[in-house]
Amino acid sequence: MASTPPTASNANGESYTDMKGDVDAIGSHCQMAYCHVLDFLPFRCESCKGTFCLDHRTEYAHKCPKEGEWARRRAALNNSSNKLPSKPSLYDHDRQCANPTCKTLIYTSLVTGVHCQRCNRHYCLKHRMEEDHDCKNLKPIGARPTNIIQQQKDRGMSALAKLKLWAEEKKKKDQEKQNKKSGFLGLGSKSSAAKEALAAANELKRTAKGEASVPQDKRVYLYVEASADTTKAKYPTGKFFYNKEWTVGRVLDMAAKALQVQNVNNRGGGEEEKLRVFHVEGGRLLKFSEKIGEACQTGNMIVLLRGVGSGEAPDLIDL
């Protein structure tokens, strides 16, 4: 009696496979043009992500539009996985927690760092709080001694006082001179004084420098000086014209650049480093926001001063 070959049975003891759906659901059609054969074990191209039969499985066989992309990705992945991060050391990483008792390297891939605004030092997370690194007893890095700052303030205020006194005396002398001419020399002196003023104005306009794009009717011509008591300038004096609509702050920046005076007004910091504009004829410091044409007239003088502002007395600018 012949024996029957063994058959695999499912859970119900049946000797066949229960196939669900259509036969097309088992495999996939080759995406190669003019092929489209149904393959029960299709191949997927890792470069273009297409599905192909046995005959067209290679990139060359199906003319892959992204030929070699899979190999390049694999090579790049292998190269990156072979590179191990180097261990941080003080030979190539010089930032260490500023606490004297701590040797932790900060600002690495594993350990972040914290900058203390008060003492201007960098710490690890353990010593980031002010009480943890005794911040109140530390001298801020980069801070200058208080006596030097005070000396700069005193020098600036002294220069401002001198300028105010000089401006007042200048106005008195000019007025006395004008009154003397008007009282003793008659009407002819007025025309003579007017001619002198006109000649001085014409000379100023002829020699003054400025942006050529400023319209003639919008120009105000000024004498500009840098206070020798508070600033260092390559060119102490100059003659310039500006647009009447420009603010005093803009004029200050341009004047400082022309006279080559260090200008740190836009970098923050204390008032002892900032420049201000003193209007001689007006006898006062000008505000940065006011227009130069409203405060000054052609033939006037402005002086650049440093260290005359004060955070404790902001009304000095309005004097």
TrEMBL record:
It comes from the Eukaryota. GO terms for cellular component: cytoplasm. Residues 24-72, 91-143 form the AN1-type domain. The keyword Transmembrane helix does not apply. The keyword Zinc-finger applies. Gene3D superfamilies: AN1-like Zinc finger. One of its GO terms (molecular function) is zinc ion binding. Pfam families: UBL_ZFAND1, zf-AN1. Keywords: Metal-binding, Zinc, Zinc-finger. InterPro entries: AN1-like_Znf (IPR035896), UBL_ZFAND1-like (IPR057358), Znf_AN1 (IPR000058). PANTHER family: ARSENITE INDUCUBLE RNA ASSOCIATED PROTEIN AIP-1-RELATED (PTHR14677), CDC48-ASSOCIATED UBIQUITIN-LIKE_ZINC FINGER PROTEIN 1 (PTHR14677:SF40). This is AN1-type domain-containing protein. It comes from Periconia macrospinosa.
